[in-house]
Amino acid sequence: MPGMSETDLASRYRKRTSRRWSDRLLQALHPPNPFVMNPAEPTDFPLGRWNLYIGGAGCTVQGYINIDLLAIPGVDVVADAEQLPFPADAFQRVECDAVLEHVCNPERVLSEIRRVLAPGGYVHLVTPFCHPFHECPKDFRRFTIDGLKELAGPLDLIAKGWRTGPTATLLVIFIEYVKLLLPFRAWRALSHVLCGWMLFPLRYLDLLLFRSPDAGRIGNHCYIWLRKPVNHPDSGIPD
Fold it and tell me: Which of 66, 60, 64, 88 has the alpha carbon at shortest distance from 79?
């Protein structure tokens, strides 16, 4: 399946902040997200003077240096996560949210994150598990919590869980399934809007399902928080 070009991807991101009336109308019609965030997911680990956000194209992330492959508004540095252009031990906190499924070599990305993370600093990884194929510009893989822990290497595990749950999985897959049944692009776009608005109230069922120990069997996105030991043996040394 051909991947999305960087030109198409940049155009998609720019439409999100466009002031053209047609783009603003489309934004207004766009349905709510078919998921709710897990309120138990930690968010309060400390920021430092320098913090890194990997893959934040199309959004503004306060308090972070935002890197991505595209030179568009909101991106501070154009860079490849597999070869970060920063010195070792530079960042107190690193966010890598829904990025690892899109990179060719996630092991190398984690190696680079460990290198640039300061001793005592924190890493937040979020990845999809049961989620439809999505090219940005490529989509290579899915992860479980155990898979993320394996990538972490010598970093200490601080917290783990599911950001979005089983109901989110069912809703996003159902919407994509309905779109597959329709022959024309305009019909698929309309079905996305209609299904999204009709089904989104069901997303709140996940607030109950997050409490189940089996929610991850068909969980939508998982997360882990990691911490670099203060006496990390490879601090400042590329893996």
Answer: 66
| Separation in Å, CA 21 to CA 29, 32, 105, 126, 139 | 12, 20, 40, 34, 32
**What's the number of domains the chain is made of?**
1
DSSP per residue over 70-112, as a string? S--TT-SEE--TTS--S-TT-EEEEEEES-GGGSS-HHHHHHH
Are 121 and 158 within 8 A, CB to CB? Answer: no
Rounded to 5 degrees, φ, ψ at 35 are -150, 160
State the burial class of residue 181 (Cβ atoms within 10 Å of its Cβ: 0-12, 13-18, 19+).
exposed
- Condensed to tens digits (0 to 9), the pLDDT of residues 29-59 reads 789 999 999 999 998 899 999 999 999 877 7
Structural domain containing residue 18: 6-227
Considering the domain boundaries, does residue 232 fall inside one?
no
Query: Does residue 167 lie in a domain region?
Result: yes
pLDDT in tens, 224-237: 999 999 875 555 54
